[in-house]
Amino acid sequence: MEIFQVDAFTAVPFRGNPAAVCVLDRDRPEAWLRDVAREMNLSETAYLRSLDDAWGLRWFTPAVEVDLCGHATLASAHVLWETGLVPESEAARFRTRSGLLVARKVGAWIAMDFPATIPEPADVVPGLGEALGVQPAAVARSRFDLLVEVGSAAEVVAASPDMRRLRAVDGRGVIVTARSDDPEYHFVSRFFAPAVGVDEDPVTGSAHCALAPYWGERLGREEMVGYQASARGGVVRVRWRGGDRVELEGQAVTVVRGELIDGGEAT
Q1: Could you report the per-residue pLDDT of 64-121, keeping only the tens digit for each?
Q2: Best CATH choice for the domain 120-243 from the list 3.10.310.10, 3.40.50.1820, 3.90.230.10, 3.40.50.720
Q3: Nearest-angstrom CA–CA distance, 132 and 44
Q4: How far apart are the first and last CA of the chain?
Q5: CB 139: neighbour CB atoms within 10 A?
Q6: Could you give phi then psi for residue 146, rounded to 5 degrees?
Q7: Parallel/antiparallel/unpaired status of strands 223-228 and 44-50
Q8: Cα dihedral sign for 86, 58, 208, 217?
Q9: How far apart are CA 194 and CA 192, in angstroms?
Q10: Which residues pair with 186 in a beta bridge?
Q11: Residues of the chain with CATH 3.10.310.10
Q12: Residues pairing with 103 in the sheet
């Protein structure tokens, strides 16, 4: 089976968020999928399986299967077009645990139609600021994550979380965000999810499903550009018009293309 490593939400190798993409030759047991994800040891490994009208798509961290992942979906669409499994003139359609997701090429960018996970105001969790190493200005909760707004982009960059304490937070992970002081971007963020085996995710598409409505309401904008300020860094364009869907745009580049040797299936 072919397997790829794609850097997503970047046009430059070794930046953005790396994802493994495996094009399956047949259905595989879940234990095998988990083993390969642990072997790849990236924040996400995506598995593609050809269906009649779309591609089945599943996402695994080294620890768990997740319900939604932006960067590995972006990487999967990129692989399908790059290998000719889907013509570049056609949309890539994915059936997932979050329903049907559709990606299309827009010049050098890839646009993805995702569910919006609109965050609602929440009380500050005791000890959360200390666990993150920040001073929360506002706290909200989306379908998956806690969202913590802080006073400046510099505070986002300087956050130094205690991962042991963050594992106890209820939810998939914690988004730390602030308005950008760089005119090229509207907001900045970082994302921490030690509870699902990812201490810090370099660039998180699914987090922007919450960031788009959060900052769209505060900035009064439909279209924005977010920068995820991890060590690798990455850019996500977002578009939210007030409904239950959000459009995410990013770029991708393949850095590894190889063969996954079938050494047997775990049981």
Answers
A1: 999 999 999 999 999 999 999 999 999 999 999 999 999 999 999 999 999 999 999 9
A2: 3.10.310.10
A3: 23
A4: 19
A5: 18
A6: -85, 140
A7: unpaired
A8: positive
A9: 6
A10: none
A11: 2-114+251-259, 120-243
A12: 92, 112
Residue at 34: amino acid letter: R
Which residues form the catalytic set?
A: 44
Model confidence over 12-32: pLDDT tens digits?
Answer: 999 999 999 999 989 999 999
Per-residue tokens: 54: 């779309």
Determine how β-strand 65-66 pairs with β-strand 55-60: antiparallel
d(CA 5, CA 258): 9
Please name the amino acid found at residue 9.
F
Question: Does domain 2-114+251-259 correspond to CATH entry 3.10.310.10?
Answer: yes
CB 56 within 8 A of CB 39: no
Total residue count of the chain as it appears in this document: 267
Write down the residue that tokens 């669409």 correspond to.
Answer: 77
pTM score above 0.90 = yes
User: Which among 246, 153, 241 has a CA at the least distance from the CA of 207?
Assistant: 246
- Kindly calculate the radius of gyration of the chain based on its CA atoms and give it in whole angstroms: 18
Helices within 26-69 (DSSP H only): 30-40
Task: Give the per-residue pLDDT at 171.
Answer: 85
Encoded tokens for 200: 């810090």
